[in-house]
DNA sequence: AATGTTGCCAACCGCGTGCGA
DNA sequence: GTCGCACGCGGTTGGCAACAT
């Protein structure tokens, strides 16, 4: 059944909203709630259609909207979810509670898509472009099929969860994934053994993280409590390759080539997605360990002789499940309260001498990635 | 300084879905 | 089961600002 355009009526205004219109809408909704959107414009004295009012409210005027630059965590979450859900912006938006689907969609189209393309990754398939024409009889094809299968499974689960989230917001259910996660993560003796499935978006994440950071966490957390950088160099022991991965990173196994010590505190991700220090020297994947080194150095987990101290506690934390990590990533305060404790639970790092929200964010980011990446597919219901 | 180009984002459009009559 | 209303969603566009020539 067709539908006539909602703004067909003559005299209804279109285009940008004026501050006066915003104020009218805001005041009306604050006093009466939106009720029926169709009836709202007349009641509020606006020459707009109900749909236009709804959009203005949900995308701009709503008080719980966070505006401005997307954080690294948010970017990562969007990429992860896009890999699983595709262009289902509203579903993605449920995991970034303060962002609107429209904003996420715009950000994807104007920033993230381009950056992934630049990195040689197809933003639609989330696969490296040079892998696209491979034959179907290969082991790779089997992996791809598994990935697809897992993606479907994960996608369905996320959808259900998004629904649950919505219901939760409406007070329909008490289920709250974040609370659930926090409950678990705040109990030091409770180590949940349920392993989440390997993530089909892992390759993209690795490329993303490789573009501006570290490589060695998985092996470190599993096998050692301390590692030694001898004379400022280290052989990276990257072992992050997932069983289902379609992407190889041979370059990250190269010897660590550190930036000058005086620049350590100034390594930041640069425009290209790689790392850059304050001398504008760029460090690529090969040098990705530099960031890890820098972060640990700054946070006090590398000692005078360049020995890296890895907290034992790292190996004991297992996230309850993937979505908790995502929700977690989207909640800045919770994140600081919980993951900050996570990395410093062995007395390493702590508040960090580096200070600053950026570092704290990065620490949390890598902790969550660490947990995401270091999961075995054996616990997955898919296999 | 003037003009053209590009990037960004708010807003619009039209289809799909849920739900009550 | 069908119809029609209301709303939600994803794709697209118009217009402004920033940047390049």
From TrEMBL:
Keyword DNA-binding: yes
Record domain Myb-like: where: 9-61, 62-112
InterPro entries: Homeodomain-like_sf, Myb_dom, Myb_TF_plants, SANT/Myb
Pfam annotation, one family: Myb_DNA-binding
SMART domains associated with the record: SANT
Chief localisation class: nucleus
Keywords assigned: Developmental protein, DNA-binding, Nucleus, Repeat, Transcription, Transcription regulation
Membrane-crossing segments per the record: none
Signal sequence range: none
Protein name listed in UniProt: Uncharacterized protein
Species whose genome carries this gene: Malus baccata
């Amino acid at each position: 059944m067709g539908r006539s355009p909602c703004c067909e009526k003559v005299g209804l205004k279109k285009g940008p909203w004026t501050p006066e219109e915003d104020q009218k809408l805001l005041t009306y909704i604050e006093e009466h709630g939106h009720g029926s959107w169709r009836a709202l414009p007349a009641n509020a004295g606006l020459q707009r259609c109900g749909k236009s009012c709804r959009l203005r409210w949900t995308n701009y005027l709503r008080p719980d909207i966070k505006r401005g630059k997307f954080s690294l965590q948010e970017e990562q979450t969007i990429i992860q979810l896009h890999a699983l859900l595709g262009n289902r912006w509203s579903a993605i938006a449920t995991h970034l509670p303060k962002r609107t689907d429209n904003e996420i969609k715009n950000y994807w189209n104007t920033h993230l898509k381009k950056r992934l393309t630049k990195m040689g990754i197809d933003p639609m398939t989330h696969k490296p472009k040079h892998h696209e024409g491979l034959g179907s009889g290969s082991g790779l094809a089997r992996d791809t099929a598994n990935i697809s299968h897992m993606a479907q499974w994960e996608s369905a689960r996320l959808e259900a969860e998004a629904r649950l989230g919505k219901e939760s917001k409406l007070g329909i259910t008490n289920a709250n994934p974040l609370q659930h996660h926090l409950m678990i993560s705040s109990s030091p003796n409770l180590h949940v053994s349920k392993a989440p499935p390997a993530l089909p978006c892992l390759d993209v994440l690795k490329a993303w993280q490789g573009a501006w950071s570290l490589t060695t966490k998985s092996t470190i957390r599993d096998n050692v409590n301390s590692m030694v950088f001898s004379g400022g160099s280290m052989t990276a022991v990257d072992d992050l390759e997932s069983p289902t991965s379609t992407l190889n990173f041979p370059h990250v196994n190269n010897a660590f080539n550190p930036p000058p010590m005086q620049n350590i505190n100034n390594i930041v991700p640069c425009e290209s997605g790689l790392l850059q220090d304050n001398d504008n020297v760029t460090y690529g994947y090969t040098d990705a360990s530099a960031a890890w080194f820098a972060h640990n150095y700054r946070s006090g987990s590398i000692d005078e002789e360049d020995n890296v101290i890895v907290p034992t506690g790292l190996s004991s934390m297992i996230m309850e499940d993937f979505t908790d990590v995502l929700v977690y990533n989207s909640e800045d305060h919770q994140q600081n309260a919980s993951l900050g404790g996570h990395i410093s639970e062995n007395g390493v790092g702590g508040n960090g001498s580096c200070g600053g929200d950026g570092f704290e964010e990065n620490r949390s980011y890598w902790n969550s990635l660490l947990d995401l990446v270091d999961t075995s597919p054996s616990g997955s219901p898919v296999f």
